[in-house]
Amino acid sequence: MKTITTTTPLLPEATAQQLAAELTELAQQERTTLGVADANYLLKLVQWQRIFAITGRVLMLGCFWSAWFLLPAVLLLALAKIIDNMEIGHNVLHGQYDFLQHRYLNSKHFEWDIACDAKSWQRTHNFEHHTFTNIIGKDRDFGYGLLRLSNDFRWRLRNLWQVFTYFMLSTLFQWGVSYHELAAQRVFFGKKKADRHTQVSDHELKRAFFGKGFKQLAKDYVFFPLLCWPVFGWVLLGNFLANLIRNWWTATVIFCGHFTEQVYTFKEEDCHNESRGQWFYRQMLGSSNFTGPRWLHILTGHLSCQIEHHLFPDLPAWRYPALAKKVQQIAKRHGIPYNTGSFAGQYLTVLRRILRYSLPG
Amino acid sequence: MKSVLTRHITESMLVQSSVRSYFEPLVRLLVPHYRAGAIAAKVLKIKKQAGYVWLTLKPSSGFNGFLPGQHIDLSCEINGSRVQRTFSICSSLQEFQQNGTIDLAIKLVANGQLSRWLERSVLLGSWLYMSKAQGEFVLKQQKPLCLIAAGSGITPIRAMLLSISRMTQPITLIYSYRGDGVFNDDFRALAAEFPLFNFIAHDTENSPRLSVDSIMQHISDPAATDFYLCGPTPMIQQLKPALQQLGHRVSSESFGGVSSDALVQAVTFHRESAQQQVSGQGTLLQLAEQAGLNPRYGCRRGICQQCQCQKLQGQVKNLLTGELSGAGAEPIQLCISEAVTSVDIRL
Ligand code: FES
Fold first, then answer.
1. Which of B307, B318, B337, when mutated, tests ligand 1's pocket best, judged by the most ligand atoms within 8 Å of its CB?
2. CA of A127, closest CA in chain B: separation in Å?
3. Which of A129, B9, B135, B202 could cysteine-pair with B70, CB 3.0–4.6 Å?
4. How far is B308 from chain A (nearest CA, A)?
5. Closest atom, ligand 1, to C-alpha of B335
6. pLDDT at residue A324 is higher than 70
7. Taking the model in full, what pTM does it have?
8. How does A199-232 read in b/e, with b if 16+ C-beta sit within 10 Å?
9. What DSSP designation does A291 have?
10. Which helix (H) or strand (E) holds A94?
11. Ligand 1 atom with least separation from CA of A131
12. Which chain B residues touch A218 with a CB distance below 8 Å?
């Protein structure tokens, strides 16, 4: 078994500055090319998403004649949800397309087909996760407070069965994401942390959590089934399966982005007043990519280019594969590890990491 | 009540704030110019004249008319991005009733993103997008009136005057411009038609700026006269209080921020209906905090977009990239923006 990297290599400040200059230059160049291509890409994406969603829902009616209709229907609906959450939702909510000044596809107004309230996700994900990536104790995305994925955490008995916990987390992923901020703020359980900066009251958090969750449940398990009354049960089942597929898929993709074996973690005290270059460096060490055909990139919301996403979270994601080549060259020039591999290969190392840290030591 | 319910249902069923925005992408496959939440308008005529681009637009059926003096938000898609500015309608009501068209006279501004694009790239027969007509700057009473316009402030006043079919009260128009009075012919024709209409063209190239005294010289019955002012902010700030002090009723509309070379710019934060003006050095986030406004923020270094707000007008500099923004409405990140001109921000 490969050894899992534990000590994070340091980058001399001079190199960090150069790194920052080169990456900033790269982003600037890319920014000058933003324009109608992005608008058209986004439009096409949303058109396909609508077509998949509507066809999927309509096909479910076919269960009136044959249960076989359920299969394509579920796949299409799951596909629509995945595109909505990943390539549209995740990226629009990052503000990647805000320069288009689109009336509703922008980071202020977009809402996605998932249990998590978009605003709550933006606070934890865009702010916490992207600012403090892989800093133990500050980026709660690292292990989600459930899994032990590095030696920075003390081993506990419950880590023994964390493969099972991981499976459950994937299965209920949308609820995990939606509960994420409430867990951090100790809304229901635990003692408040004194140093947490928050601008949203517990009351608002609860309202958003229950409000959005309720709407989603009502849609998939009450409204649409009732609307298709004679096949009520089939529609209910179909929606459930579509959500399940989406949950597994998104969880898998996200785990491949930060929990592969070669990903590094950081200590809070090392990141105080870090320079822009060191921040870039941390993003590169804290993320991992995987390769694959174009459709795979799209279905992952281009989180397959997690490194580029973390370096340039506000550039339209479909541009990442092209940027990746240049970033990889820059990394090579400065001797910075660049973690990439096949989807299956990367996922295997995720599983290994989860298993490895189930045991103490 | 009903609308709240429908909104809730749309929000849960379609995960969209409106049914239109759910279906818009698909409708655009058939009707490419369709946009949810906007009125598409076809460009029927383009005329370039004396520093103005003159557009004749035919709004689609969603547009339900206007009161002369009102303005619309016009948005154009420039290289895929929506750029929006506000313009007064300058054509008459009759023209809209007869042909279903409205005219906009858009002044060319040196670095004006939208006006320059209109000058260079807008095509006959293409589609622009507009809002419904809005604004309170409309003629109200049957009293002697004095209308004062400066620069492109003439556009709403032109619409008001050309829409009058029977003039029953004395109206004086004082139009202050520099060099070429683009609309003078229209007003001279009007003066020939209506004896009660008095037109004074005031070219600032060879005469001093307007003052209350010079205005009063042109008015026969000052005590009974109401005033309508439209022009750049500094002019309104100068004339309006002076006229009000003399006991006149004054309606006004102003446009444009005051741009200056001073390092410290006035920043106005709008929140709901309240406004607060601050000036000082630092990022807009720091200024808002100094003003005790508690804006939302996260990383404070341009990563997370938590501090994103809508800039209503004015230019800012992005401290990360050094880029200057446009002058119109657009989202900006408070934590990495510094005011370059006076700026209005909605929190
Ligand atoms: S506070 Fe994070 S982008 Fe401004």
1. B307
2. 5
3. B135
4. 8
5. 4
6. yes
7. 0.89
8. eeeeeebeebbeebbebbeebbeebbbeebeebe
9. B
10. none
11. 2
12. 12
* CA B222 to chain centroid: 30
Give the nearest partner residue to B306 out of A37, A126, A224, using CB atoms. A126
Which residues in B lie closer than 8 A to residue A128 (C-beta atoms)? 298
For residue A180, how far is its CA from the centre of ligand 1 (angstroms)?
20
Nearest chain B alpha carbon to A199: B296
- For residue range A30-61, what is the model confidence (pLDDT) as tens digits? 999 999 999 999 999 999 999 999 999 999 99
Backbone angles phi, psi at A96, to 5 degrees: -65, -30
Q: Give the CA angle between residues B80, B86, B87 to the nearest 5°.
A: 115
Amino acid at A96: Q
Closest listed residue to residue B168, CA positions, set B196, B138, B140, B198: B196
As beta bridge partners, residue B230 has B149, B253
Lining ligand 1 with CB less than 6 A are B 297-300, 302-307, 333, 335
What pLDDT digit, counting tens, does each position of A153-181 carry? 889 999 999 999 999 999 999 999 999 88
| CB-CB contact of B135 with B161 (8 Å) | no
Q: Which of A327, A344, A335, A358 is nearest to A22 (CA)?
A: A327
Distance of CA B285 from the midpoint of ligand 1 (Å): 9
CA of B245 to the centre of ligand 1 (A): 46
Q: Are A333 and A116 in contact (CB under 8 A)?
A: no
Residues 6 or more apart whose CB falls under 8 angstroms from that of B180 comprise B50, B51
Identity of residue A111: E
Q: What are the chain A neighbours of B331 within 8 Å (beta carbons)?
A: 95, 98, 101, 106-108
- Tokens representing B120 are 């260079």
For residues A156 and A148, the answer to whether their CB atoms sit within 8 Å is yes
Query: What is the rounded distance in angstroms from the CA atom of residue A275 to the CA atom of residue B92?
Result: 60
Q: How would you classify the pairing of strands B274-279 and B102-107?
A: unpaired
Neighbouring C-beta atoms of residue B268, cutoff 10 Å? 18
Q: Do B82 and A102 touch (CB under 8 A)?
A: yes
Closest C-alpha to A308, from A296, A294, A326, A292: A326
A336 contact partners, CB below 8 Å, separation of at least 6: A11, A19, A281, A284, A285, A330
Mean pLDDT, residues A323-351 taken together: 96
Q: Which is it for strands B274-279 and B266-271: parallel, antiparallel or unpaired?
A: antiparallel
Q: For a pocket test of ligand 1, which of B294, B299, B345 has the largest count of ligand atoms closer than 8 A to its C-beta?
A: B299
For residue B302, report the distance from its CA to the centre of ligand 1, in Å: 4
pLDDT digits over B110-166, tens only?
777 888 999 999 999 999 999 999 988 998 877 899 999 998 899 999 999 999 888
Q: How far apart are CA A358 and CA A150, in angstroms?
A: 10
A154 exposure class (CB count in 10 Å sphere: 0-12, 13-18, 19+):
exposed
- Residue B61 DSSP code: T
Chain B residue with the nearest C-alpha to that of A95: B305
Joined together, the tokens standing for residue A198 give: 């928050």
Evaluated on CA atoms B171, B175, B180, B182, the torsion sign reads negative
Contacts across the A-B interface (CB distance below 8 Å): 110
Start-to-end CA span in chain A (Å): 15
A40, closest residue in chain B (CA to CA): B80
